[in-house]
Amino acid sequence: MIIRFLEQHGHKVQDRKNSRVDCINLSKDTLETFLSDRSRSSQKPDIHVFILPDSSADRYYAQIKSLTDRGYPMHSLCCLAWKVTGVQMVRVRGQLVPRRNQKGLEVRNPPFDYLSNLCLKICMKLGGVPWKPEEKSLEELFAIDEAAREGETPEPLQPKLTLDTIIIGADLTHPGSASGRPSIAALVGSIDDSFARFPGSMRLTPAREEIISAENLAAMVAERLRSWSRYNSGRLPSKILFYRDGAEHDEQADADQKLELTFVVVVKRHHTRFFPLTSRDVVGSQGYSYNTNLKPGLLVRDEVTTPRYPNFYLQSHNAIQGTARPAHYVVLEKAPSLEMHNLEKITNALCNAFPRATKGVSYCAPAYLADRLCERGATYLSQWAGLDDYIAHCDELRRKEYTTRAEQKEWFAKVARYLNVVFEARKHWIPETSDGQNPWAAMMDDVMFYM
């Protein structure tokens, strides 16, 4: 069924007869043996699709992703059995069970939407581009036309003007509420002129800190620039558009004078909402609205914005349930060549270019993709057996008051144990298949495997 949907969505499936279906026990040892054999096979497939049982799917997902991204590098996709088959499920006493009709038969719906979404994921993992912003519009928004600024008649725009721009998205996530658990910083950067492909970088950071350290940020940005250079004839971009997903307005950006830098903080956690005044402004046809939200594309530049920095609110999505929450974009640094109204249009275009959604999402794709990459890092950490020891040592080190020599000696012993755990964490975080500081195999560096 999945192969048929791939072909219907434009994928060319080669050697269809050689596609294999294996039923295996998903215990870690059995899974490692299976993946090891497949990675050494002469007929290694482009992607492995794992259909997981309904119970303990999260645990199996973490094992599979950690092994296929790091230990035995290969592209993988996980899906749930009941969603692939279209069986309707209901929760009974905390467990999902099939819904049955009066005759006792399982109720099924055609899983067309779910399988189409799987096709999108496969396309991205293999380096494809499901859709992208219109190139002509991007060229007009990013082009520098000095003649037009001086009031003269502008010359026709030259093609491929966006090739000098890299768009970067960054995010920080704190996996779980346990004290001492390390946070994860992720950064994605575009590599093409249509801003549709965003490979990424990732680092561990101190727990509960909202600011990415200068060392980690510089290293990750350098990796993204090198990746951009590999796909653009060995040269570097002249312009950077940086979206930082975060809750703080006060994070400052240091601009490199050799580059034109635009730095935007994307604020999602706020209490500002917008409501329609007439039925013409709401989502729906013929004056009907199912949730009374404003139409996607609402832009608010003044009245409720802050005077400290240039900023705007953008409601780019149609909320499925409840009141839509607009994203607040605060511009901390803006390149002289990029007009504010063009930045607003670019941001809205990026909200409609999220590769896994067929509609606009709530905030711009680069920041959204960085958030997805952070989630993949949390999956890797969940497989670290020493996480509980790490948390315990962090709790001990917080109580560092001592009055006697013996207490001081005991505290330093705790520090030594903590450093040993951190060293073990680093060995777990960076696999042998990696060629740098990222916690995945080198073959994943330039693809959106995290989708």
UniProtKB/TrEMBL annotation:
Recorded GO MF terms: nucleic acid binding
InterPro entries: Piwi (IPR003165), RNaseH-like_sf (IPR012337), RNaseH_sf (IPR036397)
Name listed for the protein in its UniProt record: Piwi domain-containing protein
Secretion signal, residue range per the UniProt entry: none
Domain of life: Eukaryota
Domain Piwi: 47-382
